[in-house]
Amino acid sequence: MKTIRLVGIVALLAIIAAAVLYWQNLTEDSGDMPLSALAQTINQCDLIAGKAAAGLPEALAFQKLEKMARQSRVLDRCMQDRGYQQDPAWVDRANARAAEIAQAQNISHNEAFETLRRQAMLKDEPAGGGYWRAHK
Q: What whole-number distance in Å separates Cα of residue 38 and Cα of residue 36?
C-alpha cells in the first residue's frame, strides 16, 4: 500500500517537473525576440479582460456572447486608457472584408465585422496595418 502511494507521488512529481521544464522551454524560445510596447499592452489588457469576465457563467449560448462582449469591451477600454485607439483605416478595410465574409458564410455584416474586430484586437500588426494606433 505504501509503495503504491510512493509510486504515485513520484509519478506526480515527475509530471510536475516535466511541465516546468516544458514551460521554461516555451518562455526561452519566445524570449529571443522582445515584445513591442503594443504587444505588451495587448497582453496586459487581455489578461485584465479575461479576469473581468472570468466569473460570468457561459452555460447558454447568449451567456457565451455576453462573456465575449464583456472581454472585448474591457480590452477596448484598457487599451484606450493606455493610449491606443481603433485605427479608422482598419475599420475601412474590415468593412470591405466583412461584406465578403457575410456573403460567403450567409451571416450578417455586423457579425462578420465583430468577429474580425475581436480577432484583430489581440494582434500586434506592423505600423499602419493593425487594429490599434497610438493616440495623436
A: 5
**pLDDT tens per residue, range 99-129:** 999 999 999 999 999 999 999 999 987 666 7
Determine contact, residues 70/52, Cβ cutoff 8 Å.
Answer: yes
Question: In this structure, are residues 50 and 71 in contact, taking their beta carbons and an 8 Å threshold?
Answer: yes
- Both 90 and 48 in one domain: the answer is yes
Helix axes 109-120 and 61-81, enclosed angle (nearest 10): 50
Same structural domain for residues 46 and 71?
yes
Tens digit of each residue's pLDDT (9 = 90 or more) over 38-85: 999 999 999 999 999 998 998 898 999 899 999 999 999 999 999 999
pTM of the model: 0.70
Q: Are 71 and 120 in a shared domain? A: yes
